């Protein structure tokens, strides 16, 4: 891992089989590749992998991007007592969950822009109030903007 990534927020994403889930994963990968956040493995958190739990518990700000109201990525972290600082649930942003279909690339760019701004706010340190809320079990949801 590049050392510059260690100062970035972590991003976890749903990566299920629906179009919304794949959009969430796509956006998280793009945030990682563009250097806006470091993507970590939600499957490893769900699978109780010690090294990946250590990353999740390291105290870095966390953004979770879930594709639908099932919020699987957020719940995987919460199983381990970890509440994200920011949470994007794409159905609340108007993203439709479709099975056996790809996500809309135009919609993906809109979601990416919102996620990039959210990650930037975490990197600027705007996580403190959300972190205080998360200690009481309330992470901050990102409001729909599409």
TrEMBL record:
Q: Which InterPro entries match?
A: DGC (IPR014958)
For bias type Basic and acidic residues, the affected ranges are 123-139
Q: Which domain of life is it from?
A: Bacteria
Segments of this protein annotated with the region Disordered:
120-146
Put simply, this protein is called Zinc-binding protein
Origin species: Paraburkholderia dinghuensis
């Amino acid at each position: 891992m590049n050392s510059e990534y260690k100062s970035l927020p972590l991003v976890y994403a749903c990566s299920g089989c629906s179009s919304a889930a794949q959009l969430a994963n796509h956006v998280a990968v793009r945030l990682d590749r563009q250097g806006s956040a470091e993507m970590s493995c939600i499957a490893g958190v769900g699978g109780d992998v010690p090294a990946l739990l250590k990353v999740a518990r390291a105290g870095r700000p966390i953004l979770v991007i879930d594709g639908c109201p099932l919020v699987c990525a957020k719940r995987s972290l919460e199983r381990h007592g970890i509440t994200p600082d920011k949470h994007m649930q794409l159905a609340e942003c108007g993203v439709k969950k479709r099975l056996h279909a790809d996500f809309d690339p135009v919609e993906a760019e809109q979601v990416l822009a919102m996620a990039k701004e959210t990650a930037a706010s975490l990197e600027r340190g705007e996580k403190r109030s959300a972190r205080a809320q998360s200690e009481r079990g309330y992470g901050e949801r990102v409001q729909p903007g599409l």
